[in-house]
Amino acid sequence: MEIAGFTIDKDSPVFIIAELSANHNGSLETALQSIKAIKRAGADCVKLQTYTADTLTLNSEKDDFIIKGTLWDGRKLYDLYKEAYTPWDWHTALFEAAENEGLICFSSPFDFSAVDFLESLHVPAYKIASFEITDIPLIEYVASKGKPVIISTGIASEEDIELALDACRRMGNDQIVLLKCTSSYPAPIEEANMVMIKNMAERYGVITGLSDHTMGSTVPLVATCFGAKIIEKHFIIDRSVGGPDASFSMTEAEFSEMVKAIREAEKAIGKIDYIPTEKMKKGRDFSRSLYIAKDVAKGELFTKENLRSVRPGFGLHPRYYYQILGKKALIDLPAGTALNWDYIDG
């Protein structure tokens, strides 16, 4: 699978997404400066969210529409989304800014009109947010565009995941990534459950990754070690900017440290290979081998007293120790001689 020329498969580097979300706090200039900072921090991609309060919810005072049990307790859904949305007339400038920085840019649409709008901007991929995984008509419409579909699973049951995958495949689209996600803000680290990264890949036959709301870099690093190929993290240029997502977003310095740690983790993971490297071969000089421990005269028997397995590794392999005991020396062998077959009778 490719997103704007970036290959994403089991052997590729982790594709690191900086989620801008509401972290412009209503300022286009802040959004543009954030994109520059995202590039400096080492991300591969910046992701937006494309909705309005009216496309996402109803402007209702009923209790159903009042937020409970989250960071935004007591707020009306409509008011939160009205504050947090990224104006659609900014999108062109933001996409251009990302392109100028060499960043890939795409977005999460939240209704059909957002998909149509993003198609006009030629987005290379789509992200389905966790709370939209149950919106099968939206997923079908996104998948019908024939571009990679990245789906967060923060509230998903097995059935939800299967329905979403079926929706994509029904549209002839098998370019799917599932992201393990915990839809708490911030998310407790003990609920990260990173073992699911590998399990989802095996169970559903898709690329998997992480959309992370925990604090710090620990969970993204664990995800990398479990085979995550996409990692998404909220980014903010400075928490003093404020906004609905500021408290659980990474600053430039924090994001940069995470990227560095992920790239180092990738190197550490390496590959399955039992062939010794040149450094390993050189290191064998310090392994054990068979040496003469006391002077041995020609014709004398090798014994436990005059033959030992010691460092370094220039003599015969220790596996021959018992085979050699009791045999005769063909020549005089002073202590410290590395044993070889030419010195042994029989």
What keywords describe this structure?
16% strand; 346 residues; two-stranded antiparallel sheet; alpha/beta; 12 helices; TIM Barrel
For the sheet with most strands, the description reads:
8 strands, parallel
SSE run: EEEHEHHHEHEHEHEHEHEHHEEHEE
- How many alpha or pi helices? 12
The CATH superfamily of the largest domain appears as Aldolase class I
Main sheet: strand order: 5-4-3-10-9-8-7-6
What's the N-to-C terminus distance? 62 Å
Classification by helices and strands: alpha/beta
Q: Any idea what the radius of gyration is?
A: 30 Å
The count of domains is: 2
Identify low-pLDDT runs. Answer: none
Describe this structure in words.
- The protein has 346 residues and is of the alpha/beta class.
- It has two domains: 2-269, Aldolase class I (TIM Barrel), CATH 3.20.20.70; 278-345, Antifreeze-like/N-acetylneuraminic acid synthase C-terminal domain (Type Iii Antifreeze Protein Isoform Hplc 12), CATH 3.90.1210.10.
- The protein is built from twelve helices and 14 strands.
- It has helices at residues 28-41, 53-56, 77-84, 91-100, 112-120, 136-143, 158-170, 195-204, 218-225, 252-269, 278-283, 321-324, and strands at residues 2-3, 6-7, 15-19, 45-50, 104-109, 126-128, 149-152, 176-181, 207-212, 230-234, 289-292, 307-310, 328-329, 344-345.
- It has an eight-stranded parallel β-sheet. Strands 1-2 form a two-stranded antiparallel ribbon. It has a two-stranded antiparallel ribbon with strand order 11-12.
- α1 (28-41) runs parallel beside α4 (91-100), α1 runs parallel beside α10 (252-269) and α9 (218-225) packs parallel to α10.
- The radius of gyration is 30 Å and the shape is elongated.
- The termini are far apart.
- The model has no long low-confidence stretch (mean pLDDT 95).
